[in-house]
TrEMBL record, chain A:
Single GO MF descriptor: iron ion binding
Domain Aldehyde oxidase/xanthine dehydrogenase a/b hammerhead residue range list: 38-143
Keywords, sorted A to Z: Molybdenum, Oxidoreductase
A Pfam entry, by short name: MoCoBD_1
Coiled-coil regions listed in the entry: none
InterPro entries, A to Z: Ald_Oxase/Xan_DH_a/b, Ald_Oxase/Xan_DH_a/b_sf, Ald_Oxase/xanthine_DH-like, AldOxase/xan_DH_MoCoBD1, AldOxase/xan_DH_MoCoBD2, AldOxase/xan_DH_Mopterin-bd_sf
SMART domains membership: Ald_Xan_dh_C (SM01008)
Keyword GTP-binding: no
Database matches in SUPFAM superfamilies: CO dehydrogenase molybdoprotein N-domain-like, Molybdenum cofactor-binding domain
Protein name (database record): Xanthine dehydrogenase
From TrEMBL, chain B:
SMART domains for the chain: CO_deh_flav_C
Single Gene Ontology MF annotation: FAD binding
Name this polypeptide is given: Xanthine dehydrogenase
Keyword Flavoprotein: yes
Pfam families per UniProt: CO_deh_flav_C, FAD_binding_5
Organism: Croceibacterium mercuriale
Amino acid sequence: MTRSLTMDRPDDRNRLDAMAQGVIGQPLDRPDGPAKVTGTARYAAEYQIAGCVEGVLVTATISKGDVTAIDEASVLSMPGVIAVISDERMTARAAQGGAGEAPVQQVRQVQYYGQPIAVVVAETFEQARDAAKHLKVTYRADDAAITDPHSAAAPTETYDEPIEQGDLAQAMAQAAHAVDVTYTTEGHNSAAMEPHASIAQWDGQMLTLHASLQMLAYNQKELADSLDLQPEQVRLVSPYVGGGFGSKLGISPEGVAAAVAAMQLNRPVRVVMLRQQVFQCVMRRSETVQRLRLAADAEGRLTGFGHEARVSNLPEEEFAEPVTQASEFLYPGENRRLAIELARVNLMTAGSVRAPGEAVGMQVLESAMDELANAMGLDPVELRLRNIPDRHPSEGIPYSSRKLAECLKAGADRFGWNGADRRPAQRREGEWWIGTGMANACRVHNINEAQASVTLMADGTAIVASDMTDIGTGTYAILGQIAGEMLGLDPTDVLVQLGDTDLPPGSGSGGSWGAASTGSAVFEACEAIREHLAERLGTTEAELTLKDGFATAGNRRVALPELLAGAEVERTGHFKPGEITEAFAAAMYGAFFAEVAVNAYTGEVRVRRFTGAFSMGRVLNAKTATSQCMGGMVWGIGSALTEGLTFDPRDGHIVNPDLAEYHIPVNLDVPHLDVVLVDERDPAGSPLQAKGVGELGICGAAGAINNAIHHACGVRVRSFPMTPDKLLAELPDP
Amino acid sequence: MRPFQYMRPEGLDHAGQLLRDGARPIAGGTNLLDLMKLEVEAPDRLVDINRLPLGGIAPTDDGGVRIGALVTNSACAADLQIRRDYPVLARAILAGATFQLRNMATTGGNLCQRTRCYYFTNIDQPCNKRQPGSGCGAIGGHNRIHAILGASDACIATYPGDMAVALAALHADVEIERPDGTSRTVPVRTFHRLPGDTPDLDNVLEAGEVITAVILPPPAGGTQLYRKVRDRSSYAFALVSVAAVVRMDGDTIGSAALAFGGLAHKPWHDPRVEQLLAGQRPSDALFHQAADLLLEDAEGQGENDFKIPLTRRTLLASLREATGGAA
């Protein structure tokens, strides 16, 4: 039996707080933790399947043109080589998140350097890799490729409808205080620890793919469409995912290549992307050029707000990094212009990388806000507090729960923020300039359709099942806690099964929607089970208390196995976003406070303290939520200081395609991260009163570091990442 | 990775015989194995020297120290005598790589570490070092990490290591066994080459030769420091590094031995700079004069132009620190 909820209005019943078990929100360990740290959790490539052979992708060494010939004979005589496959079913790109259909498949029409064009299959991985490097490919190169992401020659189009209100130019001209600044950010790679990997098995009817993916219900359709199969002929298994960050939202080339090879060879085929291929052909966050125009009255209230960006993508790709997403509603200003220009370039697909839009949009916006505060001589916290609008500045709709002011105060308090004197270059410790900076955090709240089943077993334990994924976020933990709370069970008595398309289709993990969406499906199923139990007990759901495996109503208290009398109860919850998504501006908020040291000689930056105060609706598990916030802040440090994809402008190949040269932060770059969770319930967020948390911690984090650098040494860097060379030019003589 | 033959020699002389053309010795393998996976290196034979008696840190007759070629970076940096008498070496080693890599990397292998040039490590790009005559991808490409001194039209790559920079400041020698069983020593300062027209040759090792030890002269004393400027706090190669061994003689500089990483195809040193500083009273004016001389012929490629001011500033910081501060 399925219980459906289309969320059209807020759920003010606040049911979870009315439950008795007391596990929701608790900082419980994740149940999958021991398996992961002992190496017994099996990831996609780790299944031992008899007869499995190894495939390695061959990638293009031109940036645009056609593959005119592939000389299979050049490698077929090499030891162990079984086949060279360059099939029209293979995919040249990864699917965008939520596509539900095959991505671009013409592998022989090259659109970017590093595009997959073939797969070589051999008995061993080393043989396949060697053969892949030696495969002779003939191209007809098209010289018209645009391979410099910042090229002025790239054709551009306006993406979506710009938001135009009032007269921004006039507001700027008449403003008591104004800033008009342009920042740049470079491309990013998700750099998940687990590379993209798949093992395909074909039995003539059914394709089974062990894969590392975030949205199985969609991936099933994408893979089936690529292979010309029915979705029912495809089973995806992905119980553990070693990091996704958007890069595994859509089916990626290695999975389709493995499937094509398995179907052709009638043998299981494993394809694992080389680390360099993860950089070259999965998904990048677009570089951005962002112009911010902020006009304020004498008190610092925004009267004009402009955020215009240029981003890029391949021809035919619809995705444009939505950098103005939070700018639409975070700040007031009746005179507005928000617009995104999309440049068409021949570089790997741009798509969702953790917190698409806000990750780089907020860091630039918040740097510009700091410039405005400095221009006014105003405490930047106070500037933010004066700019919390009453209604959505363009759409006029109300905000759902929004604890931005509380986060600013809680964060400032915890950090020991001193906003009184913001003059730069005042504090020096030895050869280090010391400074502090802050920024708002903001990320839109998304919800997505999801189903999950909950089975209350005759012995009084429960099983939660969905094809939902746990990409390291804590899904196993929180779904067990939701069911445990609703059904009065210790979460250790709730088994959570995820990551298999044989299970009901969940929301998938992405856009921070997983917890609120699949969690709500679990909640709905549990409500249905509660109604059934109330009926068995001869009471109403509202009168029923479930705690520690007992059902209580009035003065009756019955153990669940007794109440069930040998039966088991299965209900499926089906959650759908409804009118609620249009009725409120729903988002997660927070505030970052950073202290940095800038070396007066070298321009090296060290983050010394980093505090984030966040509100995300109900916290489902304080430990995993805190970890998510920390992870975001680490991303923020990388985005601020070290991370940037570097393309050779001559052919568009990535020159830093590995973890030695693409600098994600290491332990020494990350100080103690202090996370404050601000208590909140958002009835418009979900029936759980919860919103998303995964991406919030990155959205603005790098801005706080930029602002702290300016406060430390007086240098305003308008180009991320802020590597030492960029500070050096303006640093005072040591 | 291409198929290769793996051999374990009985002794040093046997190793020399096995190390014919197309063979490579392997010790920690931290660099070589990565390059083999990328097929930047494709030896048809690996000669595993790990079981040869090339370990140990021992005093020499003249009061110096002999560090066996197979002493790991971790062991060397943790050695009490090294830490006491040659602190610049311990500091330089600890500034490099990661714990895990330092546990495997050896003294001899580290000297032979190959460049991190992006075009060297990508077999689909031209590189005169990897494939003589194919051209240099870095010139006109991305060259933020590349050389500003001693480069040639054929190659602008840098030597990436830290340890050798300290060894150059310490005037260490490299002890090398020839295939005929005789040995020779080469100063670290001349062990690595400038690229010239033959950038495929990183150093002066000849076919069949094996590094057996690094010999440190008697302790130099003075103030020793290693400054490494990099893009992140750990596990990043030097943009610029300075190893300094400075002895004060009253209020003048007695001697200053300086070596630099990140600037050239080899750990860079400039005797003229060392001579300029010796016998002088420390001052910022003197330090800038030293930087002027050091960087006289420095030439950027665009993206790496910043290394010129960065080197000046890092040298200034190093000399101020080593001489007890100067105004």
